[in-house]
Write a structure and sequence with these properties.
five-stranded mixed β-sheet, 24% strand, 252 residues, Cobalt-precorrin-4 Transmethylase, domain 1, homodimer, five-stranded parallel β-sheet, alpha/beta, Methyltransferase, Cobalt-precorrin-4 Transmethylase, Domain 2
Chain lengths: 252, 252
């Protein structure tokens, strides 16, 4: 990529899911996109995870909660002929930057080329840390009510409980959101037994990974924060030999 | 890895998710595990996708529907001191080999070391192909009733519909299972409007990838088979400019 003389001609946006954090869990395609890019944009905590693979001159890092602004900036660079990698942790298409970026593009009626590069999501990474808990039908629910009415989140928890789904919970708790996980557990106890296995995975596949295998009765006795993903089993899930497993139904 | 003189001592099992198919979407960790292994085992269609990166002497390929046997074989090699990579498409922990392998290990009371290496799942890969349809809470449901009672699958479809989840559907149809997707659509029409966006993604991220963007009313007019993943939107999902997006709720 050279310069940006012909507006819009060579610009491109890669929305790159970098996986759970450890570079080993990035895909070749994700690394290739970052290498090909003139500019790499992302929330600074995620940029830090991969900054040793990027020429520092290319990096534009951003604060949290500036997601739309970050996408607008990305589009500006791409419209100016630059190849830009917008990085997102996990899979960019799961509560990540892919949707916001496409919505910004559509709003501005931009025809700039965009490619979403999938990554290993937090649910998949956390599951691998503890065994095979999402081997059967599962529901993924974020407890963050910043952008979603809490009543809708509650309804989804009811439905996921009633359907005996394995449930992966994103954003279970933050400094300001303490009660959502408490209420969610209460709701689930209407459908799931107290002994339902629960995995609490903090910083999955990073250096400071922490794993707790517990159950619905005792899950709140453990540290749950914004770096945590929870996996709550279905009625067939079990914990044995330090692993959490949800059987698919094979005769073993 | 040298020999297997000390039983159980050096053997190890990697359960490796190889992603959607194109090697570019494998993680570095997945490739490293395959390279480190003395033996690579998998269903032959998946082995074919990666066989040019493996010394052919190491390969043990297997027929479909021999999943338990394949895991027993894997364990035998590992108990004999070998490092074995058991490969699975997508993410090994989502309807893949990870759960079966761990269950076989537990049944045999084996203490052999096992590591599940997460990959890009079919849901994440398919979503990336069409835009950002799983940006909000989603449910993943397999329509295969080989191992699961159809009544439970139906119930889950009802619950996912009622909860206004985005729904990713695995195994929507095979030669022998033709009606499940028809019934599923009927169920969903109780909860979702006919104009709900639907993405039909066949061979996601492979050379022969095929994408159809349609809606719940017209989805059955298109080719749906065992290589297809379906993504059915929630009430906020839309299709525009050739992309399917589910808004997270940001003000764009």
């Amino acid at each position: 990529m050279e310069g940006g003389n012909e507006l819009n001609k060579n610009g491109k946006i890669y929305v790159v899911g970098i996986g759970p954090g450890d570079k080993k869990h990035m895909t070749f395609k994700a690394v290739e996109a970052i290498e090909k890019s003139d500019i790499v944009i992302g929330y600074k905590k995620y940029i830090e995870l991969i900054e040793d693979m990027i020429d520092s001159k290319k990096i534009v890092s951003s604060q949290m909660k500036k997601e739309v602004e970050r996408c607008e900036k990305t589009l500006e660079y791409a419209e100016d002929g630059k190849v830009v990698a917008l990085v997102s942790s996990g899979d960019a298409g799961v509560y990540g930057m892919a949707g916001i970026m496409i919505e910004v593009l559509l709003k501005k009626n931009s025809t700039v080329d965009i490619e979403v590069i999938p990554g290993v999501s937090a649910a998949n990474a956390s599951a691998a840390c503890v065994g095979a808990p999402i081997m059967h039908d599962f529901a993924t629910i974020s407890l963050s009510d910043l952008l979603t009415d809490w009543s809708l989140i509650e309804k989804r928890i009811h439905c996921a409980g009633e359907g005996d789904f394995v449930i992966t919970i994103y954003n279970p708790r933050s400094k300001k959101r303490q009660e959502q996980i408490v209420i969610s557990r209460e709701i689930l106890l209407n459908y799931k037994s107290k002994s339902t296995p629960v995995a609490i995975v903090r910083n999955a596949k990073r250096e400071d990974e922490e794993i707790v295998l517990t159950d619905l009765e005792h899950m709140l006795d453990h540290n749950i924060d914004m770096f945590t993903t929870l996996i709550i089993g279905n009625s067939k899930s079990y914990i044995k030999g330090g692993k959490m497993v949800t059987p698919r139904g094979y005769r073993i």
